[in-house]
Amino acid sequence: MNILERYLGRQFLRFYLLVLLVLLALFGFLDLVRELSEVGEGNYRIGDALLYVLSTFPTKVLDFSAVCTLMGGSLALAALVRNSELLAMRAAGMSLGRLTMALLKVILLLVALLVLNAEFLAPRIHQWGFVHRQQALAGTDTLRTFQGFWSRDRRRFLNIRAIAHGRLLEGIAIYRFDAEGRLQSFIHARQAEVGRNGDWRLKDVNHKRWQGGILTSERIPTLSWHPFLTPRQLATLEMPPDTLSLTGLWSYVDYLKTTDQKAERYELMFWQRLLLPLSMGVMLVFLLPVAVSNPRAGGFGWQVVLALVVGVLYFLATQVIGNLGLLLDLSPLLTALLPTVAVLLLSLLLVRRVFA
């Protein structure tokens, strides 16, 4: 990558980050305002609300990536065109193909960072914020530690070592004590599924009881158990789709389909995340007319404004079309593709008009 390509890449990244910071600040403020309605419930305070909103930022970076590519790229190219820097680059021998490849290299670098963020960073931070929020709303009887999830109901204690796919519980231990603090019974289950009625179906159960100083042990294949968790506490066990990693989403979709449960919400989120590189590439095509524009031409300003408007409409369309797709029971892959295809068609129309 030569000096001109590095300079172009830095300009693109600068405006990309600028647009990203503006969007994070705007939507973060809106989320904080919405969270303020929950402040005062349980142990939920303003500091907890602020922490939760901040924990969603890595996930929002994924949601805004395509929009930032279009809006940030258009502003970067517009600044270069206005200052005649892009004209100087073209005069120095940088063809439109090299300019496109330079931008593509930067986008590929961003895609690599976004994939790492989607798989490792964003899920962990968002899940921590979600669990912290739910625990604060539920009160003080729940606890998340390195040993898993703990909850208490008078003389009964519940420990869940891990939560797979956001809903499948693993390593369940249920302790029951008498009034003097002596252990009366212990139930350990390898796994548990949360039913639609709220009951848990424990699998591979080992049930131990102390009766008259005698310990009895019983192995049970399955056991139905009604949890003492409140709805708020139970909500901490099922993670929302946007808190899961790409592999976690795919694994959970497979689990839901295997157990004949609705998986459309999680499948839609999976395809939206997986198609991010394609969406960002389509935005690059939309930038080409701006790159060859003449700042003295009457339509230059409109091209930049159009890019900004299309970016906003694209973000809104992903939300609206996604919800409509779920309501109309459309294919999640088709629903995730529609906004990107619409921008691609508009991009090809503009390219044809400019280069004709």
Task: Output the keywords.
356 residues; 7-stranded antiparallel beta sheet; 7 strands; alpha+beta; elongated; 2 domains
Number of helices: 11
Largest sheet: 7 strands, antiparallel
Task: Please write the string of helix (H) and strand (E) elements.
Answer: HHHHHEEEEEEEHHHHHH
Strand segment tally: 7
Low-confidence stretches: none
Residue-averaged pLDDT: 89
Query: Order of strands in the sheet with the most strands?
Result: 1-2-3-4-5-6-7
Radius of gyration: 26 Å
Structure class: alpha+beta
Strand content: 15-25%
Determine the N-to-C terminus distance. 30 Å
Q: How many distinct folded domains?
A: 2
Overall, the morphology is elongated
Percent helix among the residues? 55-70%
